[in-house]
Amino acid sequence: SMYIQTSLNPTPPDPMQAKIMKYMPVAFTFFFLWFPAGLVLYWVINNILSIAQQWVITKSIEKTDIQPT
Fold first, then answer.
1. Which of 23, 25, 34, 50 fits as disulfide partner to 3, beta carbons 3.0 to 4.6 Å?
2. Tens digits of per-residue pLDDT, 33-61?
3. Is 2:30 a contact under the CB 8 Å cutoff?
4. Which domain holds residue 59?
């Protein structure tokens, strides 16, 4: 879910930051293997809700950009 969330955000201008954002989901997956299940569930649900929120905001902005004023 974190990979989808980072793909919805604009690409950072710094190439190093873009690489870090690309590999962070892999690192977090490795870290969360040993975390309690409740914390991982909270993190996943939070990411899913953030993805939905970002998608709605992006579609709303695109819709207002298309319509003439």
1. 25
2. 887 888 888 888 988 898 899 889 888 88
3. no
4. 2-66
